Amino acid sequence: FTLEPSLVLTDLLCCVSAVGLDAAGKTTLLYRLKLAEVVTTIPTVGFNVETVEYKNISFTVWDVGGQTVIRPLWRHYYTNTQGLIFVVDSNDPERIKEAADELHMQLEEDALRGVPVLVFANKQDLPRAMSASDVTEALRLSAVQQPWFVQSSCAVSGAGLVEGLDWLSDRILKNRS
What we know:
Layout: E1 12-19, H1 26-35, E2 47-54, E3 57-64, E4 81-89, H2 96-106, E5 117-122, H3 132-138, E6 148-152, H4 161-176
Parallel strand pairs: 1-3, 1-4, 4-5, 5-6
Antiparallel strand pairs: 2-3
Protein backbone atom coordinates (compact mmCIF):
# COMPACT_ATOMS: atom_id res chain seq x y z
CA PHE A 1 0.00 0.00 0.00
CA THR A 2 1.42 3.35 -1.06
CA LEU A 3 -0.14 6.56 -2.24
CA GLU A 4 0.68 7.33 -5.85
CA PRO A 5 2.91 10.43 -6.08
CA SER A 6 0.97 11.50 -9.17
CA LEU A 7 -2.13 11.78 -6.99
CA VAL A 8 -0.51 14.30 -4.67
CA LEU A 9 -1.31 17.79 -5.95
CA THR A 10 -2.35 19.73 -2.89
CA ASP A 11 -5.04 22.26 -3.75
CA LEU A 12 -7.16 21.93 -0.65
CA LEU A 13 -6.46 21.87 3.06
CA CYS A 14 -8.91 20.21 5.39
CA CYS A 15 -9.11 19.12 8.98
CA VAL A 16 -10.30 15.64 9.98
CA SER A 17 -10.71 14.11 13.43
CA ALA A 18 -10.09 10.38 13.95
CA VAL A 19 -11.79 8.95 17.02
CA GLY A 20 -12.98 5.58 18.28
CA LEU A 21 -12.63 3.36 21.32
CA ASP A 22 -9.20 2.54 22.66
CA ALA A 23 -7.35 -0.20 20.73
CA ALA A 24 -9.50 0.23 17.59
CA GLY A 25 -6.43 0.97 15.46
CA LYS A 26 -6.63 4.76 15.00
CA THR A 27 -2.92 5.44 15.40
CA THR A 28 -1.88 2.46 13.26
CA LEU A 29 -4.27 3.68 10.57
CA LEU A 30 -2.96 7.25 10.73
CA TYR A 31 0.67 6.25 10.35
CA ARG A 32 -0.16 3.69 7.66
CA LEU A 33 -1.71 6.55 5.68
CA LYS A 34 1.11 8.97 6.47
CA LEU A 35 4.16 6.73 6.08
CA ALA A 36 2.79 3.76 4.12
CA GLU A 37 4.21 1.47 6.78
CA VAL A 38 3.25 -0.06 10.10
CA VAL A 39 4.73 1.56 13.17
CA THR A 40 4.79 0.24 16.71
CA THR A 41 2.19 2.12 18.73
CA ILE A 42 1.34 2.55 22.37
CA PRO A 43 -2.03 3.71 23.73
CA THR A 44 -2.50 7.34 22.77
CA VAL A 45 -2.73 9.60 25.80
CA GLY A 46 -3.71 12.93 24.33
CA PHE A 47 -3.42 13.09 20.55
CA ASN A 48 -1.27 12.67 17.47
CA VAL A 49 -1.59 15.09 14.58
CA GLU A 50 -0.23 14.45 11.10
CA THR A 51 -0.74 15.74 7.59
CA VAL A 52 -1.73 13.13 5.04
CA GLU A 53 -1.55 14.10 1.36
CA TYR A 54 -4.11 12.37 -0.84
CA LYS A 55 -5.23 13.35 -4.32
CA ASN A 56 -5.51 17.13 -4.23
CA ILE A 57 -6.26 17.30 -0.53
CA SER A 58 -3.94 17.83 2.39
CA PHE A 59 -5.70 16.26 5.37
CA THR A 60 -4.66 17.41 8.83
CA VAL A 61 -5.69 14.36 10.86
CA TRP A 62 -6.15 14.63 14.62
CA ASP A 63 -5.89 11.13 16.12
CA VAL A 64 -7.30 11.42 19.63
CA GLY A 65 -6.88 8.77 22.33
CA GLY A 66 -9.86 6.49 22.90
CA GLN A 67 -9.62 5.62 26.59
CA THR A 68 -12.78 6.32 28.58
CA VAL A 69 -11.20 9.21 30.51
CA ILE A 70 -10.06 10.93 27.28
CA ARG A 71 -13.35 10.68 25.35
CA PRO A 72 -14.93 13.79 26.94
CA LEU A 73 -12.06 15.75 25.36
CA TRP A 74 -12.84 14.60 21.80
CA ARG A 75 -15.21 17.50 21.24
CA HIS A 76 -12.38 19.98 21.67
CA TYR A 77 -10.80 18.61 18.48
CA TYR A 78 -13.91 19.15 16.34
CA THR A 79 -13.52 22.89 15.67
CA ASN A 80 -13.22 23.38 11.89
CA THR A 81 -13.49 19.62 11.31
CA GLN A 82 -14.65 18.84 7.79
CA GLY A 83 -14.71 15.07 8.21
CA LEU A 84 -14.97 12.56 11.04
CA ILE A 85 -13.19 9.22 10.89
CA PHE A 86 -14.60 6.76 13.42
CA VAL A 87 -12.49 3.63 13.78
CA VAL A 88 -14.08 0.42 15.05
CA ASP A 89 -12.34 -2.79 16.08
CA SER A 90 -14.45 -5.21 14.02
CA ASN A 91 -12.91 -8.11 15.91
CA ASP A 92 -14.35 -6.94 19.25
CA PRO A 93 -18.13 -7.52 19.10
CA GLU A 94 -18.35 -7.23 22.89
CA ARG A 95 -17.62 -3.48 22.65
CA ILE A 96 -19.60 -2.60 19.53
CA LYS A 97 -22.56 -1.25 21.54
CA GLU A 98 -20.16 0.98 23.50
CA ALA A 99 -18.73 2.19 20.17
CA ALA A 100 -22.24 2.87 18.83
CA ASP A 101 -23.25 4.82 21.92
CA GLU A 102 -20.04 6.86 21.77
CA LEU A 103 -20.47 7.62 18.05
CA HIS A 104 -24.06 8.79 18.49
CA MET A 105 -23.08 10.95 21.46
CA GLN A 106 -20.31 12.58 19.39
CA LEU A 107 -22.66 13.24 16.48
CA GLU A 108 -24.78 15.43 18.77
CA GLU A 109 -21.92 17.95 18.90
CA ASP A 110 -22.75 21.17 17.02
CA ALA A 111 -19.30 21.24 15.40
CA LEU A 112 -20.06 17.92 13.68
CA ARG A 113 -23.45 18.88 12.28
CA GLY A 114 -23.53 17.90 8.61
CA VAL A 115 -19.92 16.64 8.67
CA PRO A 116 -19.40 13.41 6.67
CA VAL A 117 -18.61 10.36 8.80
CA LEU A 118 -16.25 7.68 7.53
CA VAL A 119 -16.34 4.53 9.64
CA PHE A 120 -13.40 2.20 9.23
CA ALA A 121 -14.51 -1.32 10.19
CA ASN A 122 -10.93 -2.14 11.09
CA LYS A 123 -9.03 -5.37 11.77
CA GLN A 124 -10.75 -7.28 8.96
CA ASP A 125 -7.73 -9.61 8.85
CA LEU A 126 -8.72 -11.17 12.18
CA PRO A 127 -10.89 -14.29 12.42
CA ARG A 128 -13.87 -12.92 14.38
CA ALA A 129 -14.12 -9.66 12.45
CA MET A 130 -17.66 -8.42 11.88
CA SER A 131 -18.50 -7.55 8.27
CA ALA A 132 -19.02 -3.94 7.21
CA SER A 133 -22.78 -4.57 7.01
CA ASP A 134 -22.81 -6.02 10.55
CA VAL A 135 -20.86 -2.99 11.80
CA THR A 136 -23.32 -0.68 9.99
CA GLU A 137 -26.25 -2.33 11.75
CA ALA A 138 -24.54 -2.53 15.16
CA LEU A 139 -23.62 1.18 15.02
CA ARG A 140 -27.26 2.06 14.19
CA LEU A 141 -26.09 4.15 11.24
CA SER A 142 -29.51 4.17 9.58
CA ALA A 143 -30.48 6.70 12.29
CA VAL A 144 -27.62 9.06 11.36
CA GLN A 145 -28.77 12.12 9.39
CA GLN A 146 -25.46 13.24 7.92
CA PRO A 147 -23.56 11.46 5.13
CA TRP A 148 -21.82 8.30 6.32
CA PHE A 149 -19.95 5.37 4.85
CA VAL A 150 -18.54 2.17 6.33
CA GLN A 151 -15.32 0.87 4.81
CA SER A 152 -13.85 -2.53 5.70
CA SER A 153 -10.20 -2.03 6.53
CA CYS A 154 -7.01 -3.49 7.86
CA ALA A 155 -4.68 -0.74 9.05
CA VAL A 156 -1.77 -3.19 9.24
CA SER A 157 -1.92 -4.13 5.54
CA GLY A 158 -3.49 -0.88 4.37
CA ALA A 159 -6.49 -2.68 2.85
CA GLY A 160 -9.50 -0.40 2.44
CA LEU A 161 -7.76 2.80 3.51
CA VAL A 162 -7.60 4.39 0.04
CA GLU A 163 -11.23 3.46 -0.65
CA GLY A 164 -12.27 5.17 2.57
CA LEU A 165 -10.25 8.29 1.78
CA ASP A 166 -11.79 8.36 -1.71
CA TRP A 167 -15.27 8.53 -0.20
CA LEU A 168 -14.28 11.13 2.41
CA SER A 169 -12.49 13.28 -0.20
CA ASP A 170 -15.54 13.24 -2.46
CA ARG A 171 -17.88 14.19 0.39
CA ILE A 172 -15.65 17.02 1.61
CA LEU A 173 -15.39 18.40 -1.94
CA LYS A 174 -19.19 18.21 -2.34
CA ASN A 175 -19.67 20.08 0.94
CA ARG A 176 -17.36 22.85 -0.28
CA SER A 177 -19.16 23.40 -3.57
